[in-house]
Design a protein that fits this description.
Number of domains: 4
Number of strands: 16
Strand order of the largest sheet: 2-1-3-4-5
Distance between the termini: 66 Å
Largest sheet: 5 strands, parallel
Shape: elongated
CATH superfamily of the largest domain: P-loop containing nucleotide triphosphate hydrolases
CATH class of the largest domain: Alpha Beta
Structural class: alpha/beta
Number of helices: 19
């Protein structure tokens, strides 16, 4: 394949030299003025550039003017804007003018390589003009960019750069709405599997009795409604990436089967008498504390160790409030065409109202809030009355974590009670299942089910060690 061509536009010559050293596998052309950049990019002909790295603050012709001129001259390269000053404001304006991405100075090798790689793949995929075969296989979208500034985003890109080229299992932790699927898509898009399927499974959205069939499939006759063979999502993700969202909700019975796939790279469809080999990279995500789930007996410890090879932790939006203006403008540009309004931005008062809110639903809640504000807006700028947020509530006195769903909390409480009660009643009867079941007022089979569910060693109680 022909080497990628990168145009670096920066009035400081040493910056181009640094970028050339960081990106040795890319053909780098450097210019030191905006005027020269427009002429070189527009006159490249058959040697057109794939990506332009553009410094925003330059004398004479600045980044804003260069972006406008490149668009007017029909330059098709993906433009990544660079700036060391006012990164939030610059990124907002750059996106509005059609930039593909933004990176803050000083440049970080890992972040630079990943952002250039994304832009390059997007440009080449568009040039091929090949529509995706289905909803799971597609080129990276511009909306897949991880939006943020400061050190946390550079640290995240550093870790993504380490793990993306490998087939290592990744576990993404973070509250609901923090962008776990977006990070998973980024890892896939920057891996060697990027042209293969990226398949998403939300373990919490599929009923427990259907999840096994969804994951592994079945053969004809496996059950009453199985009128034909059906491939599961593991088979659909073959040679690609399977993203298991909310893996903490997966029932224990399926956790065993998932563990086997991770260990042997093979699975068995429901009703089948032979195993199927599969080549899949697994990425998981959860908003739960899996260590607590392991302690409560609702998540297998061996599976936890298998999936937690390379953990990534995403901060909640309240811990990176400085990103709210950048994210808000990103969502404004993303959704304004849907409401058929030419809304240009936010009034200072409206932005202040957004920044003063904690957003317990994180980035997803912010996106919905901006979308709603666009619908309500009556002028070119979103006003405070268009922003529907309420003051953040004080923490609950009970100490209950209200950021987590009711079902999650209830499940953990019930699991802790079941395990503690089972251990107590067995200890009281020295491991005698029949006597313990009578005291508990339950059938022996049900008590045995609890013993197996939580891996309790009955013999230890019989030996007087409980």
């Amino acid at each position: 394949m022909e080497r990628a061509r990168l145009l670096v536009v920066d009035d400081e010559p040493h910056q181009a030299q640094q970028i050339g050293q960081l990106l040795r596998d890319v053909e780098v052309t450097a210019v030191t003025s905006g005027v020269e950049a427009v002429e070189v990019a527009a006159g490249a002909g058959d040697r057109a550039f794939d990506v332009v790295l553009l410094d925003y603050y330059m004398p004479e012709m600045g980044g804003e003017e260069v972006l406008r001129a490149l668009r007017q001259r029909g330059v098709d390269a993906r433009v990544i804007v660079m700036s060391g000053r006012q990164p939030g404001e610059v990124a907002v304006e750059a996106m509005r003018l059609g930039a593909f991405d933004f990176i803050s100075k000083p440049l970080n090798r890992a972040e630079l390589r990943l952002r250039v790689e994304r832009a390059l793949r997007d440009h080449r995929a568009a040039a091929r003009a090949r529509p995706p075969a289905d909803g799971t296989q597609r080129r990276p979208r511009k909306s897949d960019v991880i939006i943020g500034g400061g050190t946390w985003i550079k640290d995240l890109y550093e870790r993504i750069s380490m793990v993306a080229p490998t087939d290592v299992t990744v576990a993404i932790f973070g509250e609901s709405g923090t962008g776990k699927e977006l990070v998973a898509r980024t890892i896939h898009a920057l891996s060697q599997r990027y042209e293969s399927p990226f398949v998403v499974v939300n373990c919490a959205a599929i009923p427990e009795n259907l999840l096994e069939d969804e994951l592994f499939g079945h053969v004809k006759g496996a059950f009453t409604d199985a009128t034909k063979d059906r491939e599961g999502l593991f088979a659909a993700a073959h040679t690609g990436t399977l993203f298991l969202d909310e893996i903490g909700e997966m029932p224990l019975s399926l956790q065993v089967k998932l563990l086997r796939v991770l260990q042997s790279q093979e699975f068995r469809r429901i009703g089948d008498d032979r195993d199927t080999k599969v080549d899949v990279r697994l990425i998981t995500a959860t908003n739960r504390d899996l260590e607590q789930a392991v302690a409560a007996g609702v998540f297998r410890q061996d599976l936890y160790y298998r999936i937690n090879v390379f953990p990534l932790h995403l901060p909640p939006l309240r811990e990176r409030a400085e990103d709210i203006p950048l994210l808000a403008h990103h969502f404004l540009l993303k959704h304004r065409a849907k409401v058929a309004k030419r809304v240009e931005g936010f009034t200072p008062e409206a932005m202040a109202k957004l920044c003063a809110y904690d957003f317990p639903g994180n980035v997803r809640e912010l996106e919905n809030t901006v979308h709603h504000a666009l619908v309500m807006a009556q002028s070119e700028y979103i006003a405070p009355e268009d922003v529907r947020v309420t003051p953040s509530r004080a923490p609950a006195r009970s100490g209950i974590d209200l950021s987590r769903p009711f079902r999650d909390l209830k499940r953990e409480v019930v699991a802790r009670f079941e395990r503690a009660y089972t251990e107590e009643v067995l200890a009281a009867h020295q491991g005698n299942i029949a006597a313990a079941a009578r005291t508990a007022g339950m059938d022996r089979k049900n008590l045995w089910a609890l013993v197996k569910k939580y891996g309790i060693d009955v013999d230890a109680y019989r030996a007087g060690k409980g």
